[in-house]
């Protein structure tokens, strides 16, 4: 046992009344720290050492029971603290110490060790520590612990969420699953479809799908989503038409695929087909929140009057068929009306929303700013703070844009400085660009250039463009040389 680990054990032991000289072995001390778990009418509950000892006749009985129940108790602790990084690492340390993660432990059954690994892997995955999850999997294989279908399901999720996972690693995971004979599990097959599609390997994703005996709707949706996310909308359309059964996730994924690939009119057309099922007597699939958000985004970005016209129809459909408008659907409507000169409608939607998320406030502030209502945008920002809604990075981009367009220099600088001082938000490139635009529009070109030079990072094209635009607007050609010198 390392010195740091021993110190940790001693401190924790003292906290529950377990001190030196109590007659327990060092191994049992570790167990007691981990296993002061008792069952009552309320479920699992942690107790002190005294409470644990009172339920047993002597220390030997307690030690024997702890030895026998160690695996079950550790699993209980593992499941209880799987959302806490600190406790997870402590329990992981105990698992290593008492041999629960090794086949060399004589009291350990093979399936129990696999269960320990699965629980740890799932816990680290829930903590968004995908790299640790993948390392734990390789450790599991190196110690000859057999993974099962549950192991691979978690590992494919970890590999999908990893920033730069090598394709070769994905294939090695698949090879291991094939070797273990667990690929018949349709849930695991679907996970591999997601994994390959995420890494833009549609060939392998299609191969996994084609090898499925009876693809279920979930697997079909995964394959459809893979086509959409990789920009293969032609293949997605053919696949969508061939699907024997479509649920709301199928329709929403297909609509969202067109939106992400900037085929806005096609997205609107698919939504129309979805609604028309009721009229045609087909099995009607009711749109959900995500469906409305996707199609309203298509309407907001569609050129001409088609987007606004159909957006209003969807708004009417929502009012007629939904008991209450959600914050996210309301936000999508605000963006729609804000981009199509429908400020009055946007304000009505905002005022009628029962629940407002931070994205809702961002949408209305941005809408007011882009429609020439800069002072109202600032007032809305103040109202947001008063009502207890905490602004985020996007909020400050919207409100700083309002200040720039209204040439509210002093107020804009105050708001910029408040980001870190009041809200602990570190300004990013977009925020610095807004301040350069703020100073430049108001004619303070030299100050804008000086501010840009003092940025903690190199200015990007948008920041340089804001300064050059200010030079052109105010007829200050010397600033061009200043920009070129940056």
UniProtKB/TrEMBL annotation:
One of its GO terms (molecular function) is RNA binding. It comes from the Eukaryota. Keywords: Repeat. InterPro entries: DUF212, PPR_At4g14850-like_plant, PPR_rpt, TPR-like_helical_dom_sf. The keyword Coiled coil does not apply. Pfam families: DUF212, PPR, PPR_2. PPR repeats lie at residues 247-281, 357-391. GO terms for biological process: RNA modification. This is Pentatricopeptide repeat-containing protein. The lineage of its organism: Eukaryota, Viridiplantae, Streptophyta, Embryophyta, Tracheophyta.
């Amino acid at each position: 046992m390392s010195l740091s680990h021993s110190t940790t054990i001693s401190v924790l032991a003292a906290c529950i009344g377990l001190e030196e000289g109590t007659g327990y072995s060092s191994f049992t001390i570790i167990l007691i720290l981990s296993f002061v778990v008792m069952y009552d009418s309320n479920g699992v509950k942690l107790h002190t050492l005294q409470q644990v000892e009172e339920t047993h006749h002597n220390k030997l009985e307690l030690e024997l029971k702890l030895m026998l129940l160690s695996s079950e108790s550790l699993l209980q602790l593992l499941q209880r603290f799987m959302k806490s990084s600190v406790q997870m690492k402590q329990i992981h340390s105990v698992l290593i110490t008492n041999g629960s993660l090794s086949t060399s432990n004589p009291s350990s059954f093979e399936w129990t060790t696999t269960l320990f690994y699965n629980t740890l892997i799932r816990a680290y995955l829930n903590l968004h520590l995908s790299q640790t999850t993948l390392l734990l999997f390789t450790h599991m294989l190196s110690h000859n612990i057999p993974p099962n279908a549950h192991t691979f399901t978690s590992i494919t999720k970890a590999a999908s969420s990893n920033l730069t996972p090598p394709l070769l690693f994905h294939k090695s995971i698949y090879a291991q699953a094939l070797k273990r004979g667990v690929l018949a599990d349709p849930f695991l097959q679907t996970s591999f479809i997601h994994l390959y599609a995420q890494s833009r390997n549609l060939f392998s994703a299609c191969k996994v799908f084609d090898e499925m005996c009876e693809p279920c709707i979930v697997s079909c949706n995964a394959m459809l989503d893979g086509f959409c996310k990789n920009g293969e909308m032609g293949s997605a359309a053919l696949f969508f038409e061939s699907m024997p059964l479509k649920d709301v996730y199928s329709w929403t994924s297909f609509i969202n695929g067109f939106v992400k690939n900037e085929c806005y009119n096609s997205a609107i057309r698919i939504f129309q087909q979805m609604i028309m099922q009721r009229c045609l007597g087909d099995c009607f699939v009711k749109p959900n929140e995500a469906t409305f958000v996707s199609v309203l985004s298509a309407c907001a970005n569609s050129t001409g009057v088609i987007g606004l016209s159909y957006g209003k129809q969807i708004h009417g459909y929502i009012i007629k068929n939904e008991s209450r408008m959600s914050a996210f659907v309301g936000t999508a409507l605000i963006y729609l009306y804000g981009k199509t000169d429908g400020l009055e409608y946007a304000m009505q939607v905002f005022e009628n929303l029962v629940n407002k998320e931070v994205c809702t406030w961002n949408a209305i502030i941005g809408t007011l700013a882009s429609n020439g209502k800069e002072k109202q945008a600032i007032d809305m920002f103040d109202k947001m703070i008063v009502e207890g809604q905490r602004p985020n990075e996007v909020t400050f981009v919207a409100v700083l844009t309002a200040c720039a367009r209204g040439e509210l220099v002093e107020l804009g600088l105050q708001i910029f400085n408040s980001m870190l001082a009041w809200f602990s938000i570190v300004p990013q490139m977009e925020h610095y660009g807004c301040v350069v635009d703020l100073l430049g529009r108001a004619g303070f070109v030299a100050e804008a250039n000086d501010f840009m030079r003092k940025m903690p990072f190199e200015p990007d094209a948008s920041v340089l463009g804001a300064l050059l635009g200010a030079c052109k607007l105010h007829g200050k050609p010397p600033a061009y040389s200043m920009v070129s010198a940056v």
